[in-house]
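Progress report, Aim 2. The chain analyzed during this reporting quarter is listed below.
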Amino acid sequence: MANPQDTIKLSGFNNLTKILSFNFYDFCIAMNDDQKQEYIKYIHTKYCAANIRDIARRVCEIIEANILNESIQDYDPVGASTMTLMSDIKGGKWDEQVTVTAESANASVKMHLDKSHITTHTYPDASDPEGICTFRLDLDVATCGDIIPLNALNYMFEVFECDVVYIDYVVRGYTRLENGKKIYNDHYFNSIQDYIKKETLDKYQYRQDINMANDNIWQTKLMVKPMGPENYLFDPKDINHPELDHKMELLTQEMREVFHLN
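Predicted structure tokens for the chain:
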């Protein structure tokens, strides 16, 4: 039996679990093996674990979550992952004897609040023989309490270069009001796209939207409108390369496959 002195009191805590998955693909054309290696180095630098951790920190600021603990890892030859444990300091009120900060959170708080977290994983791929390089990043936000992860979507579009995007959102469980009534969702909306700026949505030619509000399940898929090759070349000097038109056809096909248009 746990010692009462080891317990942490929560009052009025919101038990709803909200999970946001933000998965995007970025595409690039490498004309030779040297450019493929340079591309991998570029991705490894821009999206190293430390940089992604900083992005997760900013997400926590936007959704008003309190960071409890962080873990980062880079991989050889490619890839990185991070995990940020967090808590909701807006909803359930902590006992006055417990002060939770990134510096002072004790080990038991870190362990028992790991249901609220942000995880990221990166997947660079430069192995295509035709030089169509892809970079995929999965960012998942799982929270309990009053936090609404959807509020961070516009920041994610700003900080990442998203050619194809998958966004999934689910709400699970229930919480009770003071009168005992059960609530299965504490924020009502029609579509994930309600949380995305219009100028951002206008950049995408394919916009699929699935809304199962009765089941608390939503999904949005986006594929960017056609852009010139200068947006995809790893080396801008290749703009007059004789194989460029062929490479752009392959890149478009790859994007359509990832989006599941074929």
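Confidence is low (pLDDT under 50) at residues 91-114. The longest strand covers residues 17-29. These observations will guide the mutagenesis work planned for the next reporting period.
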